[in-house]
Write a structure and sequence with these properties.
Layout: H1 2-21, H2 24-43, H3 48-64, H4 66-71, H5 79-82, H6 87-123, H7 136-164, H8 182-187, H9 197-206
Helix pairs in contact: 1-7, 2-3, 3-7, 6-7
Length: about 210
């Protein structure tokens, strides 16, 4: 298990590095959009390449940051429900969903994206728009995004198993209940992470 956890640290480090740096592509997209708008208005000149480059950058941010989002536990979930569950219950739910839903989906997408990218690369597929960009780099980004998400899913599964088995202490705030809701529940005597939450409720009522 220690070897697997070491692999997790490596995966997390790569994912975090990409996630922290890919944000600069948002700034690049904003600058390109602004310059393109100014040139179009001032000189009545533009190109589809600039427009396509904007969605290239947006797609790169979306795909390459997906694994980082999973690592930070920032993906969409029903917080109104999960905030009322114990921490251990949330860990079991995460483990089940990662194995049953996330991994099969990501593997299917990798399997579909590989020929999708390869055919485009071999044919040097170009945009159908006049003056547009070559297409295969965008398709490669999609493939890389799902490969990163697959690796991060494996890391999360290993960490969840280690935490549930008591091998790894979970001090990561990103795997705790939502920061807004959990303090309110704790103050009411219903800390979802505590094993004696129901008992505390009874004592609070007695007092």
């Amino acid at each position: 298990m220690q070897a697997l956890l070491a692999a997790c640290r490596g995966i997390d480090a790569v994912t975090a590095f990409i996630g922290r740096h890919v944000k600069w592509l948002v700034l690049a997209a904003i600058i390109i959009s602004a310059v393109n708008a100014i040139v179009r208005k001032a000189f009545d000149s533009s190109s589809n390449a600039w427009l396509e480059l904007q969605w290239y950058l947006f797609g790169a941010v979306f795909m390459l940051a997906a694994a980082y989002t999973l690592q930070r536990n920032a993906h969409i979930r029903i917080d109104v429900v999960s905030a009322h569950l114990r921490k251990r219950t949330r860990d079991w739910i995460d483990l089940f969903c990662h194995i049953v839903f996330l991994l099969p989906f990501v593997l299917m997408m990798i399997w579909l994206c590989w020929p999708f990218f390869l055919d485009s690369y071999r044919s040097q597929e170009m945009s159908m728009n006049s003056g547009g960009l070559i297409i295969w780099p965008a398709k490669l980004i999609i493939l890389i995004g799902f490969v990163l998400l697959f690796a991060q899913a494996i890391s999360e599964i290993i960490k969840r198993i280690a935490i549930l088995a008591g091998i790894l202490a979970d001090h990561d705030e990103h795997h705790a209940a939502p920061a807004v809701l959990e303090p309110q529940l704790s103050a009411a005597g219903r800390d979802p992470a505590g094993p004696d939450a129901d008992k505390r409720d009874g004592q609070g009522g007695a007092q």
